[in-house]
Amino acid sequence: xxxxxxxxxxxxxxxxxxxxxxxxxxxxxxxxxxxxxxxxxxxxxxxxxxxxxxxxxxxxxxxxxxxxxxxxxxxxxxxxxxxxxxxxxxxxxxxxxxxxxxxxxxxxxxxxxxxxxxxxxxxxxxxxxxxxxxxxxxxxxxxxxxxxxxxxxxxxxxxxxxxxxxxxxxxxxxxxxxxxxxxxxxxxxxxxxxxxxxxxxxxxxxxxxxxxxxxxx
Length: 217
Known about the structure:
The chain is mostly beta strands.
């Protein structure tokens, strides 16, 4: 009996240091990921290949959207680093050429249906957007643009109609290109549906980006 108790005691003493060593072994902690901060909305950097000018009523900057398939030739919008998806918003307008002569002759009517695409710089399509607008009088224009040679110092090119566009931008995408895709226009000059690459077919304004920036570690 005594031999059995002695054996159990010896085994317990031998096991105790091993158990203590296991308890003292430090546990490796994985570094914590940077937490996302509160969402914020900014005006991102916009590289406009053809800036029309500033609106006299809205004081917005209006930019032509060229037709084409090469993202580098479109309106390139650079976005800040963001955690999770962000939301790119902008107003899309039809592109109308105002003519005082057509107004006097009573032939000012125009109808536009325009489609554009939002792409990554590698050419992946993120979303499509469209706007439809009609023109009969100057009051149908969304705004007039200053800095021109027309009456009152206004430019002939003007934004018609307005469609609020929202595009979800995946995490990791830091640049987006806007390019024109389709045009269906009825003007005093006739009916047009074919567009050449590089030709401006729509107008964009009020570009904003809502996102959640990463907190510094």
